Inverse folding.
């Protein structure tokens, strides 16, 4: 069983203050000072993949786990790669890309598909996150699946493996759907059961300390077939609030509670 | 420009989706050739108030049907009609189908768009990016364009009678990839949070599951529904159905009381349509105070304890 997880390390946009957003560059906002973290949906994908791999191993079957990311500075991802090695990933591939692909999911999917084809690697399960915060494109998993001609399930919440088949739970508009699968598939994790990635022990960290990710330049990829050009970004503007906050100066929580009780009673 | 709006299955009877599509078409302010593609057992009860064509592929598009199984029907409609722009609704099904159709038609695709306009012979599309902290304007130059409308987009009024030409279209049931999958069940859930007039929402500043229990107790005591922000959901303190924000529930209550939440933009989108927002946070610089009507600088847990205590006194 070969499992691939596509992930992204992002800047935590919640770290950027309201006033900083108002003063951002209208083409390429600088959020570099915000701390780096796993993209939340991708973190769920990385953890769920580990959990499926464990179920596989318990059945006495061999598993190979690979994590792959496209980034513009592979050096910045080395700490994250080390964590992946420490918790059980066998290889980490970093596709070095110098283009602006924030809003070009077609290109990202094409590159990943091309990398897999060019290196003659085929995975049984491909995990991704449903979307990333910067582009909010939410297309890559579906496009990747189409490039690889396999099905894709979006907004997956849980995956289990038993008796030679996967059981996949997904969010749908009406509620929830459970599907049984037995072929190759792309699973895009949404609001998952396993949201955080496990933390390696010191011993695991030491064992993995010498392992290095494979870095591969996207410039070396030769994707075939035409894809549509990206939507051209004209500008970015801060989302402005239409509300004007009136601060209520209460000295104690009791006084604030009293006010809220009166307000609620007046609306009854 | 030739525009096709798509309604599938349960979307057909939900007038909000068609109203949002019509609002988007109206914003283009030019002569458009308008089509409505209906994939389902029935036609909508309301109509676009403009002359249009309805292409109806009659078939069962139930919750157990996988998106890939609808793709062949959509491709058939596309080849027949060749629109410049295809507008989907903003639910999970549409956001899955749009990229699939876009791949097979080599289209420029954008999901969850807020606004459309036509400028200098090009389509300009606006959508939230950077976790909804910024709004991006994109120019699309190479049709076809495939777009889905954001869940929070405005709704335009529709007509009960319309002038349309109805054409039957073939329903193509199977896709080559579909038979490998077996749908075990599709479970419907009722969401009371969406329809609530009063909501109390807790953020991670509550600090623990026990403190969230205080918030739930308070919400129940005032006949309100309760919700949580994404960090609270990710910590496993509350189920997914209680998640408020752009990827969870979008609410429009009369009153939203938000306790101990910082006010991330993606969360605020979920309560933006509330009539009144009261925010409680111990940090006077928290972003939530930029997006609410009334602000109380106070520890959320202390306030909840006082509120519950006050309720007991009041009842006593």
């Amino acid at each position: 069983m070969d499992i691939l997880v596509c992930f992204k390390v992002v800047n935590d946009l919640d770290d950027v203050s309201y006033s900083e957003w108002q003063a951002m560059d209208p083409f390429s906002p600088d959020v570099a000072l915000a701390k780096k973290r796993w993209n939340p949906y991708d973190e769920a994908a990385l953890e769920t993949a580990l959990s499926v791999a464990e179920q596989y191993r318990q059945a006495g079957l061999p598993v190979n786990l690979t994590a792959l990311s496209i980034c513009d500075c592979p050096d910045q991802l080395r700490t994250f790669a080390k964590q992946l090695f420490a918790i059980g990933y066998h290889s980490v591939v970093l596709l070095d890309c110098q283009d602006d692909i924030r809003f070009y999911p077609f290109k990202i999917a094409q590159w990943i598909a091309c990398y897999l084809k060019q290196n003659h690697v085929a995975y049984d399960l491909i995990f991704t996150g449903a979307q990333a915060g910067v582009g909010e494109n939410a297309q890559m998993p579906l496009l990747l699946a189409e490039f690889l001609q396999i099905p894709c399930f979006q907004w997956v919440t849980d995956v289990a493996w038993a008796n030679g088949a996967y059981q996949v739970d997904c969010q749908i508009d009406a509620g929830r759907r459970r599907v049984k699968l037995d072929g190759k598939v792309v699973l895009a994790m949404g609001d998952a059961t396993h949201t955080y990635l496990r933390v390696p022990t010191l011993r695991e960290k030491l064992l993995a300390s010498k392992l290095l990710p494979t870095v591969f330049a996207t410039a070396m990829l030769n994707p075939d077939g035409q894809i549509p050009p990206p939507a051209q970004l004209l500008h970015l503007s801060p989302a402005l609030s239409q509300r004007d906050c009136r601060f209520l100066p209460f000295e104690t929580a009791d006084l604030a509670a009293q006010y809220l009780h009166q307000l609620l009673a007046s609306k009854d | 420009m030739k525009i096709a709006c798509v309604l599938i299955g349960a979307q057909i009877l939900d007038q909000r989706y068609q109203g949002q599509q019509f609002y988007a078409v109206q914003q283009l302010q030019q002569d458009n050739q308008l089509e409505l593609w209906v994939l389902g057992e029935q036609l909508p009860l309301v109509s676009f108030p403009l002359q249009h064509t309805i292409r109806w592929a009659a078939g069962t598009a139930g919750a157990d049907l996988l998106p890939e199984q609808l793709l062949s029907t959509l491709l058939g409609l596309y080849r027949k009609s060749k629109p410049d722009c295809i507008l989907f609704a903003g639910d999970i099904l549409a956001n899955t189908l749009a990229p699939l159709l876009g791949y097979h038609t080599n289209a420029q695709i954008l999901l969850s768009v807020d606004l459309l306009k036509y400028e200098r012979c090009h389509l300009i599309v606006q959508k939230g990016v950077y976790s909804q902290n910024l709004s991006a304007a994109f120019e699309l130059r190479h049709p076809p364009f495939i777009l889905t409308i954001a869940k929070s987009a405005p709704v335009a009024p529709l007509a009960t009678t319309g002038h349309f030409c109805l054409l039957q279209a073939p329903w193509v049931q199977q896709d080559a990839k579909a038979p490998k999958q077996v749908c075990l069940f599709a479970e419907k859930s009722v969401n009371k949070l969406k329809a609530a007039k009063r909501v109390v929402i807790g953020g991670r500043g509550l600090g623990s599951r026990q403190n969230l229990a205080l918030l739930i107790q308070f919400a129940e005591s005032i006949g309100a529904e309760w919700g949580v922000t994404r960090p609270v959901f990710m910590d496993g303190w509350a189920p997914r159905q209680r998640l408020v924000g752009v990827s969870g529930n979008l609410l429009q209550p009369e009153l939203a009381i938000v306790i101990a939440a910082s006010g991330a933009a993606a969360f605020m989108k979920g309560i933006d349509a509330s009539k009144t927002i009261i925010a409680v946070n111990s940090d006077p610089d928290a972003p939530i105070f930029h997006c609410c009507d009334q602000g109380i600088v106070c520890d959320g847990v202390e306030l909840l304890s006082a509120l519950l205590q006050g309720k007991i006194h009041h009842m006593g």
Q: What stands out?
A: The first helix of chain B runs from residue 15 to 27. The radius of gyration of chain B is 22 Å. Chain B has a mean pLDDT of 91. The longest strand of chain B covers residues 108-119.
